[in-house]
Amino acid sequence: MINYRYFVSFVFLVLLGGVLFSFSIANLSKFPSPVNATLTNFPTWHPEIQNFNLQIWYSIIVFTSFLQIVPGILMLIWTLKYETLNVFIFNNEKTPTTTFNKLLAGYSIMTGIIAVTLIIFDLGKLFASLAIMHNYFEVIIMILLHQGGNLATNNNILQYSIIYILIVAVATILLQWPYDAFFFKAQG
């Protein structure tokens, strides 16, 4: 019988290879030059958009941030106050979902905070340096799911986390437009 984790990993690597191959055949010289951010005047990762209503854009960001931060706080309170009834079962081991629920709460709160920073910094290198933490939560959640909800099975999780954050931050900062935006989007 085929182990589903190996199959999913294989499919992911094939898709990643396809994405990387598409970059090799794309003509990136035809990309329009990016505009500067509204508040910081730093270059962004998008060109000027015609008929773009900035007030609607900011309203959507603030509203969705509220919809992410408030439930995240409530979920965090719930995980600290109540004992969970659900468990992960992996290799006949039962692991409570408490850590997973706290990570989901942190992910929700961090996503809302990052969305607000999008208003301040606009989409660019400065925004990416903070948005890496949002992606970090995603990676930790995937590792936790991959290990059946038990982070204790991987003693090197802190080292892997620091390496991931450093690689993404350094690559995003050092790459030039449009490669920095492509790299950040692909890794996240």
Molecular structure report:
By secondary structure, the chain is mainly α. The protein has helices spanning 4-25, 54-81, 98-121, 125-146, 157-174, 179-187; strands spanning 87-90, 93-96. The chain has one domain. The protein contains 6 helices and 2 strands. It has a two-stranded antiparallel sheet with strand order 1-2. Strand 1 and strand 2 (93-96) form a beta hairpin. It starts with a helix and ends with a helix. The model has no long low-confidence stretch (mean pLDDT 83). It comes from Cetraspora pellucida. This is 20414_t:CDS:1.
How are the elements arranged and paired?
Blueprint lengths: L3 H22 L28 H28 L5 E4 L2 E4 L1 H24 L3 H22 L10 H18 L4 H9 L1
Antiparallel strand pairs: 1-2
Helix pairs in contact: 2-3, 3-4, 4-5, 5-6
How many domains make up the coordinates? 1
The count of strands amounts to 2
Based on Cα principal axes, name the global outline: globular
Amount of beta strand:
under 5%
Kindly report the spatial arrangement of strands forming the biggest sheet: 1-2
From the alpha carbons, calculate the radius of gyration and give it in angstroms: 19 Å
Question: How far is it from the N-terminal to the C-terminal residue, by CA?
Answer: 32 Å
Protein name: 20414_t:CDS:1
Transmembrane segments: 7-26, 56-80, 100-121, 127-145, 157-179
Keywords: Membrane, Transmembrane, Transmembrane helix
